[in-house]
Structures are given as C-alpha cells and as structure tokens.
C-alpha cells in the first residue's frame, strides 16, 4: 500500500487543527485545504493533500455527504478510482459516490464482493492512499463519517489511539490517561454522552474488535486477521497502546493493497508518516514563493495568539506566555456573542498579544458558535497583519475563514499538533488543538516564531528545540 516516494495521500479531517496535525505527521510535502473543491488540483506522487471538512458540528447526514463529496472530487481529479481498484472486478461499483448519491451507509450491501476483493488485493503502485482523521476523543459525527468513508473501500482499518497524548485503545475502549472515555471529563462540553467504545462511536458500521495481543503478533499475522474480518464483511477496530502498535497496524494494512483505507487520529497518521519515510516533520517544505515574516518596514509583524478554546489547560498556557512578556486581552463572552464588533486595543509591531475568551462565567455551549464567530470578526478587523497562533480547531477555522484564507502550506511542527504553516501571502499561522500541549505550549510556539521577543529570564526552550519536531508536550 505504501511505496516510498510514489504514494500520494489524501486525508480528510473533521476540523482544522486536526487537519494540520495530520499534514505535519504524514511527513510529505502537503497542502492543507479549507475547501474540498480545491482537491480538483491533483495530488502529485509523493505528496499529500489534507482537507478540513469543517464537519465536527455537522449532523450525521451532512457530515457523510461532505466525506462523499471530497472522495468524489479527489478521485475525479486523480483520474483514477479513489479506491485504487484496478482488479477489474467491477471497479467503479466500488468507487466513490457522487455527492448526494443514494447508497446505504454501511450495511451488508456488497459485503461479499468487498470481502473477496480485500482478500485478493494486489499491492499498491503509486496509487492514492485515503486517510480519514477522526478526533482522538471520538467527538463529532465519527460514525457517519466512517460509514461514508468506507463506501467503495474494500476494507477500513480503524485505529484511533493517540499514544503521544496518553489516549490509547484497550479492549475496544478509549482510555484517557488510563480512564475510560465515558468516565472521564473529556466530553464535558458535548451535548451528548461519550461512547463507551470505538465500535459504539462507529455504529452502524459493522466492526470487529482486534485486541492488542493480535496486533502484537506482527504485520503478517495481523494482515491475515484483517482478511478474516473482511471475509465476514466487517471492518477491524484495532487496540493500540503504543506507537509501535500503530506501526504494525499500518504495515498490516499495507499488505492488503490499495483497496484498504485507514481511519484514525494523529497517532495512526504518525505511524503512516514513519512508514512513508519521507522528510522528517519540522524540515521546511513547499512554502509558497515570497514567504517571510518581516513587515515591509523591516520590523516583525505583531504576533497574535487567539486562545478560543475552552479547554481548562489553556489558562495556564496563557499565564506562562504573559509571564514572559506577552500582553493578555481577555474578551467577555457576552459581547463576543452579540451583533456588534468587539474592538480590542491595536497591535504594535514586534509585540506578542493573547486574545482569549473570558470563561469566568463558565462554558455555555449554547452560545459557543456565536462566540467564536465574534472572535473571528474581531481578529479579522485588527490592523497590522499579525502572524497568528490559533487554538483550537473551530477557532482556527473561523478566524481563517474571516480572513479569506483557503489554503495553508505546513512548514514545520513546534510540538505535537502545533503546526507552523504559511498562507499564500506569506503570513505565519500556527494551529493547535485545544487540548494539546503542556503548560509551556504557547511559550514554545512564541519562542519558535519570535525567538528574540520574549523575556530572557523566562524558561524558554532553546531555539533549536523550539523549532524541532517533538512527540512531547501533549497533555490533557
Ligand atoms: N458543544 C459545544 O458547543 C462545544 C463548545 C466547546 C467545545 N466543544 C467540544 O470541544 C472540542 C474542542 O474544542 P476546543 O476547546 O479545542 O476549541 P475549538 O476552537 O474547536 O472550540 C472552542 C469552542 O468553545 C467556545 N467557547 C470558548 N469559550 C467559551 C465560553 N466561555 N462559553 C461558551 N463557549 C465558549 C468557542 O466559542 C468555540 O465554539 C470541540 O471540537 C467540541 O467537540 C463543544
Ligand atoms: N486533533 C485533535 C485530536 O485528535 O484529539 C482534535 O480533534 C482537535 O480538535 P480541537 O482543536 O477542537 O481540540
């Protein structure tokens, strides 16, 4: 499935911070697209395109349609079946669906032929590999998206663990720092209960749990098990407790050939990136011409950190950055959610400012959409064309939409999930999931972008460490 240098990857993510995370971890020259229609530009061999479907808050039908539309668009652009089916076994019947085309989500509609093809698949030769990124905490319309993504695939191999964030899967259950997802606080801002297993999140997709002991039998044995699961018309949901487990899973999936698709969080994407073996994350790649962070007058543009995430850990991350000399402007959630533009103080060149949502009244999910929209309008109205640090995914997406940014070119990873990208006009944008990063996350990001600006007495990591890729610093 993954031949060095000639495999192209198309990854679909449900939010922007996760899309950037995958783009960095795949270790391929990448484009990060905010609009699936831009998949009409073919993905070159050895490169990847990651699309933010912005589907975290969509209902199931809309999210499934977004997945189908992206599959269809990218398959058409490549001029090849999106499932890579060159077996001649009724190839187009297994191909991507057109947007809105009627097809049952996941039942046993073509289980027999699908299983047959999975068992007999040839190796991949420079074809497109499809990856669906899901939230490591299974938030969003995970099941509907998985079912749509499985349409036309011979087999969907699922492994959602993110060991770098101490989010593993054991016995088919997501454990967050050892606590089952449905028993921890990770879903506190959700309006429904957390699933008790990965299979429950994927329902009604027919799945079979694969225990970690089976994963640790190695790629050959695991591939055999995958074939057995496929022969029963089901999709394997793999336990994984370490990056090594995820490496075995990608290797086993590779043995099945191009009809196999992958679904996972950044953990499985990272394993795939290690397997593809191309440039390590952090090395500059494919930045558009004319990029740079120095303003026309020679001074550095302001650096603006937009902390729109309601994650509890963000307050300490802000405090560490402020202690190093950044200015903090907390914005009350009420006015942000209202119709009027909230106008913060201006940004001077060569300064670091943090905008955050004042959450002292607690998080009210009912106003979340309006708050983030107001925050995005505020950022877009600021003069001075600041470089941006955006956390989490919805915040990042709404701000870039308000600024009219449609494509990012990832150029490096500051710590896991903190991805440095460039816009077409040379602006630096760092995106980061809300729940990622240790207490010094913002400090590390700011130090990477503005090594000279912050207090020399603050505990900044050395510049080389700040710009190097890292699997560390992912915390709850
Ligand atoms: N149900 C909801 O409305 C809701 C709200 C926040 C987070 N979440 C969940 O958490 C995930 C992670 O989000 P994230 O924190 O990484 O960042 P994010 O940028 O993806 O989302 C943050 C959201 O929280 C809102 N928010 C921030 N402070 C708030 C406050 N004081 N009161 C009300 N809303 C506030 C923002 O407006 C934004 O909509 C989301 O993808 C989602 O699954 C859900
Ligand atoms: N990529 C993160 C993960 O897999 O856990 C998450 O989905 C990002 O979403 P937020 O930025 O909304 O936290």
From TrEMBL:
Family assignment from sequence similarity: Belongs to the four-carbon acid sugar kinase family.
Recorded coiled-coil stretches: none
Upper lineage: Bacteria, Bacillati, Actinomycetota, Actinomycetes, Kitasatosporales
Annotated Four-carbon acid sugar kinase nucleotide binding domain residues: 356-442
Segments forming domain Four-carbon acid sugar kinase N-terminal: 126-272
SUPFAM superfamilies: YgbK-like
Keywords, sorted A to Z: ATP-binding, Carbohydrate metabolism, Kinase, Nucleotide-binding, Oxidoreductase, Transferase
EC number: 1.1.1.262
Segments of skewed composition (Low complexity): 76-104, 456-470
Protein name in UniProt: 4-hydroxythreonine-4-phosphate dehydrogenase
Region called Disordered, residue ranges: 76-111, 279-302, 456-476
Organism: Streptomyces griseoloalbus
């Amino acid at each position: 499935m993954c031949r060095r240098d000639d495999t192209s990857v198309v990854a679909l993510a449900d939010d922007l911070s996760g899309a950037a995370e995958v783009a960095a971890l795949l270790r391929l020259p990448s484009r990060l697209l905010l609009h699936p229609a831009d998949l009409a530009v073919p993905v070159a061999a050895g490169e990847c395109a990651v699309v933010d479907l912005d589907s975290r808050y969509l209902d199931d039908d809309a999210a499934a349609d977004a997945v189908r539309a992206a599959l269809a668009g990218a398959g058409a652009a490549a001029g090849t079946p999106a499932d890579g089916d060159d077996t001649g076994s009724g190839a187009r019947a297994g191909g991507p669906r057109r947007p809105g085309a009627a097809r049952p989500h996941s039942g046993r509609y073509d289980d027999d032929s699908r299983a047959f093809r999975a068992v007999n698949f040839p190796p991949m030769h420079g074809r497109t590999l499809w990856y669906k990124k899901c939230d490591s905490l299974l938030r969003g319309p995970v099941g509907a998206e998985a079912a749509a993504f499985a349409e036309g695939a011979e087999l969907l191999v699922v492994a959602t663990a993110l060991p770098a964030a101490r989010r593993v899967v054991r016995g088919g259950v997501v454990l967050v720092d050892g606590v089952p997802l449905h028993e921890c606080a990770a879903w506190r801002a959700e309006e429904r209960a957390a699933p008790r297993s990965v299979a429950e999140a994927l329902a009604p997709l027919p799945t079979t749990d694969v225990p970690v002991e089976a994963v640790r039998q190695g790629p050959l044995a695991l591939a055999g098990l995958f074939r057995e699961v496929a022969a029963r018309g089901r999709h394997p949901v793999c336990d994984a407790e370490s990056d090594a487990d995820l490496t075995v899973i990608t290797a086993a999936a590779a043995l099945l050939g191009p009809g196999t698709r992958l679904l996972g969080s950044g953990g499985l994407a990272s394993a795939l990136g290690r397997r593809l073996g191309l440039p390590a994350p952090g090395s500059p790649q494919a930045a558009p011409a004319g990029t740079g962070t120095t303003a026309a007058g020679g001074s550095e543009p302001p650096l603006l950190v937009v902390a729109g995430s309601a994650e509890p850990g963000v307050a300490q991350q802000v405090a560490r950055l402020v202690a190093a000399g950044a200015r903090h402007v907390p914005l009350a959630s009420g006015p942000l959610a209202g119709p009027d533009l909230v106008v913060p103080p201006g940004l001077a060149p060569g300064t670091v400012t943090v905008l955050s949502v004042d959450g002292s009244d607690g998080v009210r999910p009912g106003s979340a959409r309006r708050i983030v929209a107001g925050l995005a309008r505020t950022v877009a109205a600021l003069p001075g064309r600041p470089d941006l640090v955006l956390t989490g995914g919805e915040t990042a997406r709404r701000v870039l939409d308000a600024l009219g940014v449609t494509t990012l070119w990832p150029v490096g990873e500051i710590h896991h999930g903190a991805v440095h990208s460039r816009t077409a006009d040379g602006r630096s944008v760092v995106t980061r999931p809300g729940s990622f990063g240790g207490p010094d996350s913002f400090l590390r990001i700011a130090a990477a972008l503005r090594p000279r600006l912050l207090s020399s007495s603050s505990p900044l990591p050395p510049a080389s460490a700040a710009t190097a890729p890292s699997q560390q610093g992912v915390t709850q």
